[in-house]
Amino acid sequence: MTDGARSVNGTRNAAREGGPGKGEKLADWADGRLGLYALAKANMRKVFPDHWSFMLGEICLYSFLILILTGIYLTLFFEPSGAEVVYGGSYAPLNGIVMTKAYESTLHISFDVRGGLLIRQIHHWAALVFVAGMLIHMMRVFFTGAFRKPREVNWVFGWTLLFLGIITGLTGYSLPDDLLSGTGIRFADGAILSIPIVGTYLSMFLFGGEFPGHDIISRLFPVHVLLLPGIMLGLVVAHLILVFYHKHTQYPGPGRDQKSVVGMPFLPVYMAKAGGFFFLTFGVLAMIGGIASINPVWAFGPYRPDLVTTGAQPDWYLGFSEGLIRVMPGWEINAWGHTLELGVLIPFSLFPLIMLAIGVYPFVEAWVTRDKREHHILDRPRNAPVRTGLGVAWLSLYGVLLIGGGNDIVATHLHLSINVITWFVRISVFVVPVLAFVVTKRICLGLQRRDRDKVLHGRETGTIKRLPDGEYVEVHEPLAQAQLHTLTQHEQNPPYEIGPREDAGGVRRPVTVSQRVRAQLARVMYGPESHIPKPTREEYQELTSGDHHH
Description:
single chain; mainly alpha; two-stranded antiparallel sheet; two-stranded antiparallel ribbon; 20 helices
């Protein structure tokens, strides 16, 4: 050892003998007041399972963070004002045109602010990915039954985030005040006016007078950049806290049960993967924002109430409500000098009702099953065919109404009659979800039968064997214990039944309407026609005791 090394080591030893360093003192000070060490020790090594579908929630989170970052940048240059000015900026085709300051500042961001157009497009693409990620993530939770106790509250948080995300997208989509977004605001105003009695007053209040007014942009701006993002940020934090507290759900497999989790520790493995995935998400959105144009407001021009752009379409997540209104017959009721516009009011009411049905489903299922246990193991969608069928039926309804919301685009691109498309959607709204439910349920039952056969007869090897009597059979290989567990771990509890209407003494028991409804739903959702019985231990041992795999 050299003298220099001895000197360095001597200094270090002297520092240790002289007491803790500044960093250690700071850590001790913080821990004495905040209890950080005990908190970190208890949670930083928490185990999280690993599966590709769990990344859907991370995409939502990272898209939301990117929305906040890019939104802050855009806020620095956007002017939320409905005051009119004459444009004289860099985009020559619009010079001399009267427009609002909101639209002028949007053009300024797009053409004059360094990186402004890129940030605008990243922001818009991130909004689309955010809502899409939430929808797909919720469908994953729905199909696998991850909403069951103790996660019902977290399901409500996620459902609220989806609903607020759609509304936030509508408000942000409307801020540039171009011809396309102005058409969307006019659409929303028509829906508000259809509300009986108070619709006119609500419209006057929101717009500051007769449409289009001069106050709507300045009022949407704080709602879009402060109110809704603040509520959503609080819900995201609460959602993540509950995920951390309840522990993450996991797919069935060996070593996994309601009390143990198989996966990787939160720190450092999960944190490293999450950090890398954030930058991957940011990079993909930046690449899309740089090469794929979206919402070119300069091509539409400023909004004018007497004009509408050809092919005006909202973002995809609003196509559901647009399709409802476009395909609804123009029914109206005129009585006592008032008009009730059913052609707008009914679709306008159906959209939140359908969303509400999604939000309350976990509580309906819990009421039907009366299952009070905690569930940390996910269902395989095939083992819950009725629930899976309902989810696919809802998605098919969404797809049909999305076609209705773009019936003019479909008509022009496919050279079809818009009336034919409208009637197709009107009929499909009632037919397609039913067909989707029936087909999905049959597919799930077929997959259950295949699982049963695999458990009893094993895996096909492709090897052909000739028996002594001349018959040719394919050799089957028994499944591994891990795969057998995965295919047979799910429960098949008998559904709720009312039971005998009379007791042993011949006295008729009172049966409430609630009990009848619950029994009927339980029979439909969990009755004999909704599942294929799992192979019993006796059946498996009987078939595997001899040479039954050949």
